[in-house]
Design brief:
The complex is a heterodimer of chains A (about 425) and B (about 425).
Chain A: E1 12-20, H1 27-36, E2 42-43, E3 55-56, H2 64-71, H3 77-87, H4 92-107, E4 120-125, H5 131-143, H6 152-155, H7 158-169, E5 175-179, H8 184-197, E6 203-208, H9 215-223, E7 256-263, H10 264-269, E8 276-285, H11 295-309, E9 318-320, H12 327-341, E10 350-351, H13 354-357, H14 364-378, E11 380-381, E12 404-405, E13 410-417, E14 421-429
Parallel strand pairs in A: 4-5, 4-6, 9-10, 9-13
Antiparallel strand pairs in A: 1-7, 1-8, 2-3, 6-7, 8-14, 11-12, 13-14
Helix pairs in contact in A: 4-7, 8-14, 11-12
Chain B: E1 12-20, H1 27-36, E2 41-43, E3 55-57, H2 64-71, H3 77-86, H4 92-107, E4 120-125, H5 131-143, H6 152-155, H7 160-169, E5 175-179, H8 184-197, E6 203-209, H9 215-223, E7 256-263, H10 264-269, E8 276-285, H11 295-309, E9 318-320, H12 327-341, E10 350-351, H13 354-357, H14 364-378, E11 380-381, E12 404-405, E13 410-417, E14 421-429
Parallel strand pairs in B: 4-5, 4-6, 9-10, 9-13
Antiparallel strand pairs in B: 1-7, 1-8, 2-3, 6-7, 8-14, 11-12, 13-14
The chains are: A alpha/beta (about 425), B alpha/beta (about 425).
């Protein structure tokens, strides 16, 4: 059991979670899919046919009304109504993220506002979210300059996704978005952690903003060889294959997640159910602009995170890897893990949620934190899919093929963004509290 | 003026400045233009003709090499060379931000300070930056999907700017973007303050640069009458007129700013020159998605900022207003200032940097923070241009039209972003 020497006002816990992904739009569905090893990757449903990219986690047909009807039987009717009104004309990222925000808020038992709204902050992990919406309007400008969506000037901004969530839930504390490429989710968690520890807020909603994938961005990633476009277009569920010898690039996915963080003291005061403790975390950069991963930087981020969490490496018994299914990325992450943990590395199960979900980009850190917490709460490890033949030298316990019963005590969740942005979050079981 | 409630390890100071605007690309040049009341607004040099917006602060022809030639005599040659390499295929925003960050870094004496790179952080204030670049590529894509810029996949994401500045300045600590629309810069400054106080780092580079203005966004803002387009197209310099009865909307401006933050203890240890102390500030949200400024929200953020800074209202002797030259925005801010400062409000000079350089959007707060520091350092207040006839009820001292000598002791800088995002910082002379 880890001894956390911070006092209760400085300890941070997760009291609410919400997800809207291709493998589940409630915590229960998400957990069941993780346990069953279900993939959310399909052919694109409505994408420009001229591009090389054919597959991904596609939520382009997300229907908010249907979603709320499906999951919201117990939702307060006035919140449902407000959500429908507020999000009616809103691009996809706002709709997905706000739906996840609402789910997390209610999961935390926060309706009836037991907190002063001015002490309730909101940090959005996300940037360049609405490129599809911008893409559509650029083409409109070409044809008919007077017919740009009147709300365009407001809704193309990433901060609109922040603002709709805050308006829906009445959050008036410190609010901003953060950008860290694929590490955005973890960066947002770190900022929220620091806000709570500094006493600037009593609760913080951390939203993982979903991207809305557009053909130009996808084409650009294909041209760079960053995404899988060659071998698995006819069997999309096989394309995301971290650590496997046939991996050829990440599989982009839409998907949103949100968590509510509070201080342990605050959560206890209001009798909140606690999912897990956010013990700490850190970020460290490579001082390099190229999208080339660096083992030293990754190991440093993990080491600093453990220091911040006041946890020794031997206490870690699970790692939720960044593992995007790229040739270099997966290799370097394994090197970094071995560098930090030494002999202990082989005893730590390391799975890759992206093998099921694909790469949720700016919201990856959040949806993968939720996957970590669910595994921790329900005593299992989800499989790493498609690990048919691990690359030689990648010899950790990747939990291949099948879920297994397991009790996570202390977890690391890694996220390493393009441009050398390395982050790591440390999570501990709530049962100690 | 000192903040007695924090030890020197927790007091945060500004040790370097960088600025790039149409009216100055160094603190000295910027100072001279501010003092002279020079406007940076012109007709757009190269904007889609069909766009209703015709005027703004235009840096589209910014030439990084020429800039470095002009201002970089004292820069370490290896950094100049690295700037050329690292920023080669970079859209405007990244080049402006990196140039400003480098300027501040050198100004602070950091190349030779021996700080550990792992203890240096970089926070970039902004969101939705490489828009024009994306717009151009959408059009290319439409013609032929194979002809998009080969580097688009890396460059499109705003975080490309982080990688480049990080490599240029060898930043190995935390490195991320903080987006809060027009309030971004102030939030980034406050996050930098928190980062220093947390002990995670020894220095923070805070930078920001406007998105490269694209015709789609400009058209969008024109269609909702947020930016001025009906009048003043032939007299661009008169268009940005905060508090004036003829104001019609903001004038977009390109610009970049950067500062270096360190603890007072750290700055003293290495004998750094200290511009001012960042006492503190606040960030709040109105919980409204529509761009409707709210008096209560602005009052709250200013009050919380004063509290966080440990400053009483009567100690403030200057306000750099958000003041964008919109009908509602300017009015709400005046009402909020009066509510916070009461009787004392009329004795505080309140000017609007946007009247000179327009609205630098996500970079506005940081650019105006530099304007505040420059005025504080050189003992003057720049004029609020075009204040020919203040609108009804606007009776504060707006420093209309004429520069004046003045010593700012404690300054407040406001920024209120679209979507109810408010941030306010307080700075004191050291």
């Amino acid at each position: 059991m880890a001894a956390n020497r911070r006092e209760d006002e400085r300890r941070v816990v997760v009291t609410g979670m919400g997800v809207v992904t291709a493998i589940g739009e409630t915590l229960t569905e998400y957990r069941d899919s993780l346990q069953a090893g279900r993939s959310g990757i399909t052919r694109w449903k409505q994408m420009d046919g001229r591009i090389y990219s054919r597959i991904g986690g596609d939520l382009s047909d997300f229907d908010l009304k249907a979603h709320l009807a499906h999951v919201g039987a117990d939702y307060p009717p006035d919140l449902v109504e407000q959500a429908l009104r507020l999000l009616r004309a809103t691009p996809l990222p706002g709709r997905l993220t706000a739906a996840a925000d609402l789910q997390a808020f209610l999961d935390a038992g926060l309706e009836g506002a037991p907190y002063d709204p001015e002490r309730f902050g909101h940090v959005l992990a996300g940037h360049n979210l609405s490129t599809r919406y911008i893409y559509d309007n650029v083409l409109t400008l070409q044809e008919e300059p007077e017919f740009i969506d009147p709300l365009y000037a407001l809704m193309f901004l990433d901060t609109d996704v922040l603002s709709v969530g805050s308006e829906l839930l009445g959050l008036k504390g410190p609010s901003f978005s953060v950008g860290g490429a694929c590490a955005s989710g973890n960066v947002a968690l770190l900022m929220a952690l620091d806000l709570l520890r500094a006493g600037r807020a009593e609760a913080v909603l951390v939203s993982g903003g979903s991207v809305d994938l557009d053909p130009v961005v996808l084409q650009s990633w294909a041209i760079m060889d960053a995404i899988s476009v060659r071998s698995f277009n006819d069997e999309p569920w096989r394309a995301s294959r971290p650590f496997d010898v046939r991996r050829e690039g990440f599989v982009p996915a839409e998907g949103a997640g949100a968590v509510v963080l509070e201080t342990l003291a605050g959560a206890r005061r209001r009798g909140a159910r606690i999912h897990a403790e956010l013990l700490g975390g850190a970020s460290a950069s490579d001082a390099s602009r190229l999208p080339k991963p660096n083992a030293e930087g990754q190991a440093r981020a993990m080491r600093l995170a453990l220091q911040d969490a006041q946890v020794a490496p031997e206490q870690v018994n699970y790692i939720n890897a960044h593992a995007t299914s790229t040739v270099l990325g997966d290799l370097v992450e394994v090197q970094a893990i071995k560098e930090l943990f030494g002999a202990h590395a082989r005893r730590i199960p390391v799975n890759a949620t992206k093998s099921l979900l694909g790469h949720c980009l700016t919201s990856a850190g959040i949806v993968e934190l939720i996957a970590t917490v669910l595994q921790m709460e329900y005593g299992f490890l989800h499989p790493t899919l498609n690990l048919e033949e691990p690359e030689p030298g990648l010899d950790l316990d990747f939990v291949p093929h099948q879920a297994r019963p397991y009790q996570i005590e202390v977890a690391l969740s890694n996220a390493f963004g393009f441009g050398g942005l390395n982050t790591c979050i440390v999570v501990g079981r709530a049962d100690w509290l | 003026m000192s903040n007695q409630s924090h030890a020197d390890e927790h007091r945060v100071v500004v040790t370097g400045l960088g600025i790039i605007t149409p009216i100055g690309e160094t603190p000295a040049g910027f100072r001279d233009s501010l003092r002279a009341g020079r406007s940076g607004i012109t007709r757009w040099k190269r904007m889609d003709e069909r766009c209703l917006s015709k005027i703004g602060g235009d840096l589209s022809d910014f030439d990084l090499a020429a800039h470095l030639e002009r201002v970089g005599a004292g820069y370490p040659p290896h950094l100049v060379e690295r700037a050329h390499t690292v920023l080669r295929a970079t859209p405007l925003t990244g080049r402006l931000a990196a140039a400003a960050a480098l300027q501040a870094f050198v100004d602070a004496g950091l190349p030779n300070a021996g700080l550990e790179p792992e203890r240096v952080a970089h926070l970039f204030g902004g969101n939705n930056l490489n828009m024009n670049y994306f717009v151009q590529n959408v059009l290319e894509f439409n013609e032929d999907p194979d002809y998009i810029d080969p580097l688009l996949g890396v460059v499109l994401w705003d975080t490309d700017i982080l990688g480049k500045i990080g490599e240029l300045l060898t930043v190995k600590g935390p490195n991320y973007m903080i987006g809060n629309a027009c309030a971004s810069g102030n939030v980034a400054l406050l996050n930098g303050l928190d980062l220093l106080r947390s002990g995670r780092v020894d220095a923070v580079v805070v930078s920001a640069a406007t998105q490269e203005l694209d015709p789609v966004a400009l058209q969008g803002w024109a269609l909702v009458d947020a930016l001025v387009w009906r009048n003043f197209a032939d007299e661009p310099q008169r268009a940005s007129r905060p508090w004036d009865v003829r104001r019609e909307g903001f004038v977009p401006g390109e610009g970049a700013g950067a500062v270096i933050l360190e603890t007072l203890a750290g700055a003293r240890r290495r004998g750094a020159r200290v511009y001012a102390e960042l006492l503190g500030g606040a960030v709040t949200c109105d919980a409204t998605r529509l761009p409707r400024p709210v008096v209560e929200g602005q009052v709250r953020v200013m009050r919380q900022a004063l509290q966080a800074a440990g400053i009483a209202p009567e100690q403030v002797n200057y306000i750099n207003a958000h003041a964008t030259s919109t009908l509602v925005g300017d009015a709400v801010e005046v009402a909020a200032i009066k509510e916070v400062f009461g009787e004392y409000a009329r004795r505080i000079p309140v000017n609007a940097t946007k009247s000179l350089i327009g609205h630098c959007l996500t970079a506005a707060a940081l650019v105006e923070f530099v304007a505040l520091l420059v005025q504080m350092e050189y003992g003057f207040l720049h004029p609020t241009l075009n204040l020919e006839q203040p609108d009804e009820g606007f009776d504060l001292d707006f420093v209309p039209n004429v520069t004046r000598p003045y010593q700012i002791e404690v300054g407040m800088s406001n920024s209120f972003g679209f979507g109810g995002l408010n941030a306010c910082v307080i700075v004191a002379r050291v």
